[in-house]
Amino acid sequence: MAHPHHSRQTILLISPYWKEEHRWMVSSVKLAELWQRMGYRVEVLCMGEKTEVKHLSETLIVHTRKDFFLPDPWNYGIARGFSTHALNLARTLSPDLIIVNKVLFWSSFALLKLRNDGFKVLLLTDALVGMTWWPRGWLPRLGAFLYAHTLGTKIIRRASEVVFFHPQPTAVLKGLGIQHRSQVIPTGLDVSRFHSAPKDPQYPVVSYVGRLESVKGVDDFAFAAEALKRFLPHVTFQVVGFHAPDHPLVRRYKHVITFTGLRHDIADILAKTDIFVLPSYSEGLSNALMEAMASGCACIASRVGGNTFLLDHGKAGELFHPGKRSELIQSLRHMIVDHTARQHMSHAARKRIEEVFDWSV
Questions:
Q1: Which of 297, 298, 300, 303 is nearest to 323 (CA)?
Q2: pTM above threshold 0.85
Q3: What is 164-232 written as a DSSP string?
Q4: Mean pLDDT taken over the chain
Q5: Where does 214-358 show beta strands of DSSP type E?
């Protein structure tokens, strides 16, 4: 993407969500920040709890359309008239670039209406729901499959070009017919914002950062924490992220895990974390995992989606099969008791981010 030189160019970013406590599309926030640093003006259209327009700065305006939100395990918003509003906004702005972030959210339907009106639209995504990414539960999985192989396929094929944040299976790309209209451009982060604070090796801190959604596998993390706390009482286990009041996992495991709720000092939390765990059943290119790696955490993640790509197939962190609690417990115990292994993985994680995912490079 070239830097604009003369007049400030405009990007229209169509995203499922922006920033709300339980609906936060981190990749959209990060991309908008990056594009502004490059000199672009960014207008965002997304869904949320109410219809409004926020002028966050001279170069960032967020248009939100009220949606009806289906909770976990669906985690899916529906906003009537969203695609029409996207088309009207595109006609008004005449943006230099129109980008749809994520496929198979309600917001991605706007791509079809925009393409039918003659606009070029770039589709960005880190996962293909119903193809390479799956919710938990047979009914949501069936819904994802049917959705993906009907409307989802149509949306993907209609995109002017598709950019993935991490490599996708070749067979899937061929089946969609987009292997020659797609490329991989990993997202990243500003590594200088993350650091590692002094830690006491005798009292390690183990953290999960993210929402308490079923697909994230936080129940497996909690189970492992309870099992290990019996033999390693000096270890601190914490879950950092938004959760509904009286969440069943909080009730069940609050005696062994610290549930912090929504926090905005993630860099400081990760700086004090020894071991970071991401036990997702499906995952794209996780921003939380990237931030943990940049903070020098020893990382343990499920062998799904972008986790394998980020951790370089286990060279920059340990991988386990999703849902295999015994494997997670074994990896955690190894990292907790072996300080040398922990340090090795800490350095490997930071190096991996610096070499491949650092925006300042």
A1: 303
A2: yes
A3: ESS---HHHHHHHT-TTSEEE----B-GGG-------TTS-EEEEES---GGGTHHHHHHHHHHHHTT-
A4: 93
A5: 236-240, 257-261, 275-278, 298-302, 318-320
